[in-house]
């Protein structure tokens, strides 16, 4: 599916700077392509250096500036290094998309190993906190934060205790941020996509009916339209579902 493009001559995002975590695949990659098509400069991060290099080559042809920097968002030192690089090249940040996230094999609480619980919570919740906290130091009035949470932030799926807990917690963080940042003129959007055809299903549910799912590009296009709203308007919670509903 091709992502709808706004004219680069008129796009309000032209020349802005966006940082996307988990940018090498799925929704993160689709968002990077959508923003590049709107002449938005990009800071892309993930743990896979080779994938980052490949995406940088692809998107740099769009006549925008692209900074790629590997980062484990669970590590405060890695996050600090990412933002040092971001400040050197761009000085500011207009859009932050906290997209990085992991899931775990479907297991009841009584059988869920603590290391798995810890890894999921540190990535999906603590990582979002660390990146957001660092980003706020260089984000000015008019900025936007998008936290990709999934509908698991408001619903419960048996066998996904750590994933559910991390997403519910991240929604609480998102809602708190929104209230704290209103006086600063920074919008905060909770992105709540339903089943989307990405690699995460290999962990969550290998037999999931992918043909019924949305594409990452669909989620990216809906998010783009929220970002394109004028500064005095916002979408606080953006829930997007396949027409078949939850799977």
In short:
This protein is α/β, with parallel strands linked by helices. The chain contains 7 helices and 7 strands.
Instruction: Write down the overall mean pLDDT.
Output: 93
- What composes the largest sheet? 7 strands, parallel
The total number of structural domains is 1
Beta-strand level of the residues, as a percent range? 15-25%
Structural class: alpha/beta
Radius of gyration over all CA atoms, rounded: 17 Å
CATH superfamily: NAD(P)-binding Rossmann-like Domain
CATH class: Alpha Beta
CATH topology: Rossmann fold
Tally of DSSP β-strands: 7
Word description of this protein:
By secondary structure, the chain is of the alpha/beta class. It has one domain (17-240): NAD(P)-binding Rossmann-like Domain (Rossmann fold). Helices cover 40% and strands 16% of the residues. It contains seven helices and seven strands. The protein has helices at residues 26-37, 49-60, 76-90, 114-135, 161-181, 201-204, 216-227; strands at 17-21, 41-45, 66-68, 93-98, 139-148, 187-193, 237-240. The protein has a seven-stranded parallel sheet with strand order 3-2-1-4-5-6-7, sandwiched between helices. α5 links the parallel β5 and β6 (187-193). α1 (26-37) crosses α7 (216-227) and α3 packs parallel to α4 (114-135). The longest helix is centred in the middle third of the chain and has 22 residues, at 114-135. The two termini are 21 Å apart. The model has no long low-confidence stretch (mean pLDDT 93).
């Amino acid at each position: 599916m091709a992502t709808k493009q706004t004219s680069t001559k008129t796009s309000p995002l032209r020349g802005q700077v966006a940082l996307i975590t988990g940018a090498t695949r799925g929704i993160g990659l689709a968002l990077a392509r959508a923003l590049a098509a709107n002449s938005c400069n990009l800071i892309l991060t993930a743990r896979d250096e080779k994938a980052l290099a490949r995406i940088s080559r692809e998107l740099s042809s769009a006549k925008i500036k692209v900074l790629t920097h590997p980062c484990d968002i669970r590590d405060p030192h890695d996050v600090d290094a990412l933002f040092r690089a971001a400040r050197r090249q761009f000085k500011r940040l207009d859009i932050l998309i906290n997209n990085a996230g992991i899931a775990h094999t479907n297991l009841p609480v009584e059988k869920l190993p603590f290391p798995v619980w810890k890894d999921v919570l540190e990535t999906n919740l603590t990582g979002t906190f660390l990146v957001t906290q660092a980003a706020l130091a260089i984000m000015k009035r008019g900025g936007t934060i998008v936290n990709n949470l999934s509908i698991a932030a408001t619903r419960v799926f048996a066998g996904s205790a750590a994933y559910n807990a991390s997403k519910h917690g991240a929604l609480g963080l998102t809602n708190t941020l929104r209230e704290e940042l209103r006086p600063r003129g920074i919008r905060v959007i909770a992105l709540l996509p339903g089943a989307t055809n990405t690699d995460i299903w290999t962990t969550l549910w290998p037999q999931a009916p992918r043909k019924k799912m949305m594409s990452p590009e669909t989620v990216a296009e809906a998010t783009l339209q929220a970002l394109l709203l004028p500064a005095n308007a916002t979408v606080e919670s953006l829930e997007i579902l396949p027409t078949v509903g939850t799977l």
